[in-house]
Structures are given as C-alpha cells and as structure tokens.
Amino acid sequence: MTKKKSQPENSNNLIFERVAEEIKSCRPLRLFINKQKKKGSHINPFALRSKFLQLSSEKQIKYYQKSIDKFIQLLDDKDIDVNVQIERKLFEILLTKIEQKKYFESMSAPIKPVSTAVGYYAEIKKQENDDNPKAWKLLSADEKKHYTNLLRNAKYDYNSQIKHFSENLPERLKVEYLSFVKRPRTSAHVKDMNGENSSPAPISQRRKSVQPIPENFQALTDDAQQKLNRIQLDALHKCKPDVLYYEKKNSDDDQLTFINTTAKNTYIRTIFNQLSEKKKHKFVLKSTKKWEEFLQSHPTVVENQIPTLHLLLAKKDYIHYYFTSLGLPERPPTSALFLFNHERQETDSQQNWTDLSQSTKDEFIKRLSKIKLDYHQNFLEFVEKTLPSDYVRLEFFRNIKHAAKDYETAVKDRVDAKDDGQLKITQYLVKKQIIEVTPVSEFDRIKQQLLNTDLTDEQRKLVRRLGIIMHKNIC
C-alpha cells in the first residue's frame, strides 16, 4: 500500500521539477542573455549578468513584465492550479523578493504607511513644509493620540487601496501581489541552521571578520582589536551613502526635527531605500571616496587595523559593488556541470549532463580550467596591484565571500605554473650547496668532540652508529 501511494507523489514532484526548470528559463536575466546572444554577442554570461544589473530601472522593469507574461502563459498552458501556484511558491522561482518589490512599485501599487506614529508625524510635517515643526516629545498626550488615530486611518485606507488595486490584476498575479503585501517584515530574530530562533550578534561582536583571512595577512590583525571612539564613529557616520543623500537633498533649513537620533536614522534609511539601484550605487561610490578621506584623517584606525567598511556600507551588495568598481573580476562557476547548465539555459537545450559523452565532458572540464586560471591571474593582480593598501586588502578579505579561498588557490596556481625543469635544477643546486657546506670531515670532527665528552656507553654507541650511517649515505 505504501508503494502505491508514493508513486503519484514522486511523479508529481518530477512534473514540478520540470515546471520549475521552465520557469527559470523565463527569468528576466535569462531573457536578457538570450536577447544579447541573438544579437550576436559573445560576451561571457557572467559579464552579461553585470551588464543587466547596470541597466536603468525602466529597462529592467520591461524585462520583469516580459518574464511575468511568459510565466502566466506557461502556468495556463500547463493547467497549474492557482492554489498550487502559491503553495509551491512558483513566483519566487521567477522573481526574487527584491525584483517583486521593484515590479509592484513600478505599477504604482499602494505605499504602505510607516509603522509608528512618530514616523507618520515626521512625514506629515515634511509634506506641510513646516520649517520649525514641534518635536514629538513636546506634544501633549491628546496631540499624540490625534496622530495615532490618523495613522490607524491611513492603515485602514491602505488595506482598502490594496483590495482595489489587486482587483485590476490578472488572477495569477493578484494572488502573488496579495501574498507579497501580507508577507511579514523581516524579524530581528533569525533562524539558525537547526531552525531555532537566535538574535543577531551586536555590532561589537560583528567587528571580527565572518570571512577567513589568508595566513600572510593574519599577522597584520590584532586579536585584542580596538574599537572606534565616539568622535571617530560620528565622523564615519557622515560618510554613509544614505546620510550623504539626505544632506544633499535637504538643506539645513529643510531638514526635519526628530525625537532622537534613532528616529532620524530610520527616516534617512527609508528615503534612501526608495531610490533606484543606479542612484544608490552613485552614492555608494561617493561614500567610499569620503571613507578614503576619513582613513587619511584618522591614521590610528589604519594602524590598529580597526574594521570600518561594514559600518560604512550596511549591505553586502554595496560592499561587493564597491570592489567591483575597482576591478574585482567576476567569479567563475564552481564546476563543469554549472558551466554546462549556464550554457544550456542560454541555448534552451533539453540535453542533460548525463547525456554527454565523456569526451564532451572533458572539454567542459578543460574550458573551466582555463576560465579559472584566467580568473586567478586577474584576481591576483587585483589584490596585489589594484587594491591600494594592506588595510583595504584586509577589508576586502573580511567582507567578500570566497575571497581568501580564491586568493590562496591563485597563489598556489602561480607557484605550480613555474617551469618544472627550472624548479628541479634549483632544488638540485640547493641540495648540492648544503652538502658542500657540511662535508663528511666536518661531521667526523663533531663526532669526535662528542666522544671526548662525558657520555654514557649507550650514548657513545649511538654516536658511532650515526657516523656509520652518515658514511654509507654520502660517501
């Protein structure tokens, strides 16, 4: 009985695996790569990914829309039920959560009100162009209650707007939109590998690198690492991308008054996150320029190797973009299978890795080996020549995943790439030089000195045996 029940389940899983593969072929990036290939582009697919991310938001949205149209058509053709669509989270296979957010925002979806009355009060005062708004803490209880009621009404209106907005969407997209807006906010508590809730480590504990550092750079780090003082933290805070954007957008007279620094920083992050990726990246580069000036004006930070980049750029994506702007090469696939899958997806081939002959697999392996060798050479040049200082290199290894592993592999490849014949000659000359420096006569002299000292009979026997072994192996 158990076997009969498991067969349909396995069959369904196989069907949905195939559907998932077809959905992946509809992804925006895949559509972009296919279009470039049709134009005759021979650019590496990993470089095309970077090119896609550099497109304007408007152009990316066009690819999102094409992707969704193909997605809906595919599910209709396969007769996939809407409930199954949600349960299997098929839309998340097509678009990432960030892409979903961008897409719905581009459709002028209702904007969710802030979560607290304090933030709502600040937004209202900004819209009223109030040059000197009263601070929240100075309001009376009745005045605060007034804004609390306004926020409650705004949230009610937001729910009504969601309902009206969703009614004009296709059924398959409607359920995805409603699922998107009802998705809970990211909690401060995260689940560990065992599924247990755990709080993130405070910044003081996150100062140490979560990424490994190469052995030749570990000597530069200090286990008892110092921290930034308050003056240094304030100076670094002024270099952050969101702060630079806020100060440029608002003059001193236009800037709002906040109840505390936390409320102000939350507001600054909120308006910065509403920018397009292109504009965010622009301020990220401005921020890193200010960071370089900060390091020059605070030499003790560099001398004591105090990490600061993770405090400057809160998101790993921003840090990666910064090093990419300096010339960090694109990381190759980890295996020949992944290389084959990338190319198969570009050509919409139905062939599987297991269908290939061994000679064809060997060709992919050789090609990947060449790609990795070129990557390691470029990676070494980037680390040793492009990165301006040991401090920046340490920040690079601290924050970029796989950087230390790739560096050590690249150094090993550089050593292995030396001429084997020349290496053997060098080793032979070294051995010969050692032998000439320590001839047998020198050993006999030392042996005689040992025998003239106060040794036990057992020790004398051992010295003589060493002499016999020495003569047999060298003479």
In order across it, which strands form the biggest sheet? 1-2
Mean pLDDT: 78
Please indicate the count of domains: 5
Radius of gyration: 32 Å
Proportion of strand residues:
under 5%
- Number of discrete helical segments: 26
Order of helices and strands: HHHHHHHHHHEEHHHHHHHHHHHHHHHH
Q: Please mark out the parts with pLDDT under 50 across 5 or more consecutive residues, or reply none.
A: 1-9, 186-207, 421-438
Task: Output the structural class.
Answer: mainly alpha
Distance between the termini: 81 Å
Q: Provide the helix percentage.
A: 55-70%
Overall geometry? extended
GO molecular function: DNA binding
Subcellular location: Nucleus
InterPro entries: HMG_box_dom_sf, UBF1
Keywords: DNA-binding, Nucleus
Feature tags:
disordered N terminus; mainly alpha; UBF1; 2 strands
Please describe what this structure looks like.
It is found in: Nucleus. One of its GO terms (molecular function) is DNA binding. Keywords: DNA-binding, Nucleus. InterPro entries: HMG_box_dom_sf (IPR036910), UBF1 (IPR051762). With 475 residues, the chain is an all-alpha fold. The protein folds into 5 domains: 2-106, no CATH class; 117-185, no CATH class; 227-303, no CATH class; 336-416, no CATH class; 420-474. The chain is 69% helix and 1% strand. It is built from 26 helices and 2 strands. A two-stranded antiparallel ribbon has the order 1-2. Strand 1 and strand 2 (197-198) form a beta hairpin. Helix 2 packs across helix 4, helix 14 (241-249) crosses helix 16 and helix 25 packs antiparallel against helix 26. The longest helix has 29 residues, at 358-386. The model is unreliable at 1-9, 186-207 and 421-438 (pLDDT under 50).
